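Thanks for the sequence, V.! I ran Hydroxymethylglutaryl-CoA synthase right away. Repeating your input here for the record:
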Amino acid sequence: MSVGIEKIGFYTAPYYIDMVDLAEARNQDPNKFLIGIGQKQQSVIPPSQDVVSMAANAAETILTEEDKKTIDMIIFGTETGIDNSKAASMYLQSLLGISDYARAFEVKQACYGGTAGIQMGINYLALNPDRKVLVIGADIARYGLETPGEVTQGGGAVAMLLSSNPTVLALDGKSAFYSKNIMDFWRPNYTKEARVDGHYSNDVYVDFFNRTFNQYLDRYNKQVTDFDALVFHLPYPKMGVKALRTVVPQEEENNPLWVEFNHSKLYNSLVGNLYTGSLYLSLISLIANSKTIPAGANIGLFSYGSGAQGEFYSGVLGEFDRKLLKQSVDQQINRRKRLTITEYEQMYRSGLKETADLSINYSDDDSRFVLKGRAKDKLIYLDQVTGEDK
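Predicted structure:
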C-alpha cells in the first residue's frame, strides 16, 4: 500500500513589497537582497489574516465535500499560534466544515511542525487506508522593521491532504533525523518577533542537512545520483544554495539537481518565509514550474526547524494536473497589491493588538476567509462567501 500527499494547496495574503524598494528604503545595495539573499518579493500579512484564516484559504482550494467526510485528523503545524491553549486546528475544522468526528491538534517545533504532521499522518494512514489526514503548515515570519532579519519575513499557508491515493507525492517511509538543543532561533512568549543568531543558524542548517542526508544515504545504501531533485526548507533561497553546494558543486550548473533546485526556489523568492510551509512551497514550486521532472521521479526533502530538528526523507512524484496547480499558485501571487514601504510599515505595525475587544478592517481583503477581530477575548472569523461568522 502507498500513502502520501494526494492534494496540495497554497495561500498567501494579497499584498507584497519589492525587495528593491526595501533595499533603497534601508540604504542597502539591492543586490544584497536580490543575490545575497535570493529574495525578489515578500508577502505582507494584513491584520485581517492570521494562520487560521490563511490555512482555511489554502485548504478550501483543494478539499471536496467528500474529502471532508473522510478526514479523521487535522494536524496544524505552526510557530505563530493564536492561543496558548486552544489549537488553531479547532477553528480551522469549523471554518472548513470538517466532521466533528476527527482528531484536531497543533504541532510546534519551529519550521519543522508541518513535517512532524506529515510523519504522524502517514503512520495513521498505514493503519487506516480508507481515511484521510489534513496537514497544515502556516506561519507569519516577523523579525521587526529595520532589522537584519527584515528581508527574510513573509507568510502564508500550505495545506496537504494525505491519503492512500498519493497522486502528488508517494512517501516511501525512508527517513533520517537529527535533533539538538541549541539557540539559533527562538521567540519568547512576550514578543511576536523572533530572535535569531543569523550566521550561527545558517551554519547549523547546513550541518543538519549534511548529518541527515549522509545518514539517509548510509542507512538505505543510496547515492546523490539516486535523486532526481532535492527540495529544501527555504527561509530564504540562498540558504538552500548553501546546503546543496555541499553535495553538488555549484559550478555544475547543468547538473539536474541544480536545474530542478532553481525551479523549486522560484515561489519562495516571491513570497518569502513561511516557516512551517517553506519546504512545501518549495515542493509546489518544483512540480509546478519544472518541465523536466517526470512522474515517477525520486524527490528528496530536507526539513529543518530551529532549536533544532532536521529530517531528510523521500518520495516518488505522482501523476496529477500540474498545470492546474501552477495556475492556482500563480493566481495567488499575481493578484497581490504592491505596497510602498511606508504602507508596508503601517500594515506591519497594525497587527492584532493584545486587547479583549478589537474590530479589524477587512474591506480591502477579498480572500474567502478573514479575521474580523476579537470580542470578549474570542476570535471571530468570517466566511465572505456565505457571510457566516465562525
